[in-house]
Amino acid sequence: MWEDKETVPKAYRCSALARFVEFGRKNTKFKFMKVGDRVCVKNSVVVYHHPQNRSQPFDIKGMEGEVVAIVHEWHGRPVSANWPVLVQFDKKFKAHFKEDEVESISSEV
Prior knowledge:
Elements: H1 10-13, H2 16-20, E1 38-41, E2 46-47, E3 58-59, E4 64-70, E5 73-74, E6 77-78, E7 85-90, E8 93-97, E9 102-106
Antiparallel strand pairs: 1-4, 1-9, 2-3, 4-7, 5-6, 7-8
């Protein structure tokens, strides 16, 4: 598929998790945010899967969490996810966001 090893995307050369999420992609629009950054939800986002409020609307505006993934690929195939930024707030609660719904507050290098 690719002529030389240098043109092979990083995710195709790495583990199964890296095939799901390509961390070092150069042509991404997420240059301001990376895995490990602390973020805050800046817009009103209503979820129905919050652990303490199952099946009830719950607004998570203002909650802080950590970016655990930026979704570019699924099972080795490129995807254009509608909500590509995956944020983990606590042990039991993760949510996907658009890039304009969260803002970076700090980064862990």
